[in-house]
Amino acid sequence: MTTVQLVVTCLVDAFFPEVGVATVELLERSGASVAFPHDQTCCGQPAFNAGARDEAKAMAEHTLEVLDATQGPIVLPSGSCTDMIVNHYQELDFDDEHREMATRVAEIGRASCRERV
User: Fold this and answer.
1) What is the DSSP letter of 85?
2) Of 43, 76, 40, 69, which Cα lies nearest the Cα of 57?
3) What whole-number distance in Å separates Cα of residue 7 and Cα of residue 64?
4) For residue 95, is pLDDT > 90?
5) How many CB atoms lie within 10 A of CB 38?
6) Taking a C-beta distance cutoff of 8 angstroms, is the pair 80, 10 a contact?
């Protein structure tokens, strides 16, 4: 059984919690075991889009630390958050450690998009 890491985005958490519930149900019906990284927060996309790069970077670094410590595919029920993590984290001025994390997490995200769980 594959264990997937579910990132319930702030949008899902605050406005559409039924999407999170439906995502868990769908993944479990597909035979996956669902893990939930408990320290997850916002990926930083709202701050990034508003031009608040320092705030976005701080949120991104936290998100990377949480996701880099997990194992298995990462599932995000939000295309824009996935895009932020996979494509736009590389635009933030990370130190070497967080840049390496961003590369690893982005690759897991890309692979998760290509794979069927």
Assistant:
1) I
2) 43
3) 12
4) yes
5) 6
6) no
Query: CA 92 to CA 76: how far, in whole Å?
Result: 20
What pLDDT is attached to residue 117? 46
Q: Quick one: tokens of 67?
A: 């996701």
Count of alpha carbons within 13 Å of 88, Cβ hemisphere only?
A: 19
Residue type, 1: M
Q: How far apart are CA 22 and CA 54, in angstroms?
A: 34
* 5-49 tens-digit pLDDT: 999 988 888 888 999 999 999 999 999 999 999 899 999 999 999
Domain regions of the chain by residue span: 7-114
